[in-house]
Specification:
Family: Belongs to the UPF0349 family.
Organism: Siminovitchia sediminis
Structural class: alpha+beta
Protein name: UPF0349 protein ACFSCZ_18435
InterPro entries: DUF1450, UPF0349
Radius of gyration: 11 Å
Pfam families: DUF1450
Number of strands: 4
Number of helices: 3
Amino acid sequence: MNPIIEFCISNLGMGGYEAMQKLEEDPDLDIVEYGCLDHCDLCAETLYALVNGEIVTGNSPDDLVKNIYQYIEENPMF
């Protein structure tokens, strides 16, 4: 089972799309985008994604990608 990375479509428009594109290149991740993830305050302030249901943020697309991989490494699924 791969880690699931969820993106809000509104956050993708704020710069998260670049991060999502980079993560989609990894066949060991499952990437999903939704119309809304119900974190509107966070969405308006920073880039974020849900990683296995937990919020991970970043100040830039590269920072978000780095933080997502760090979260996955520190929180293995098994």
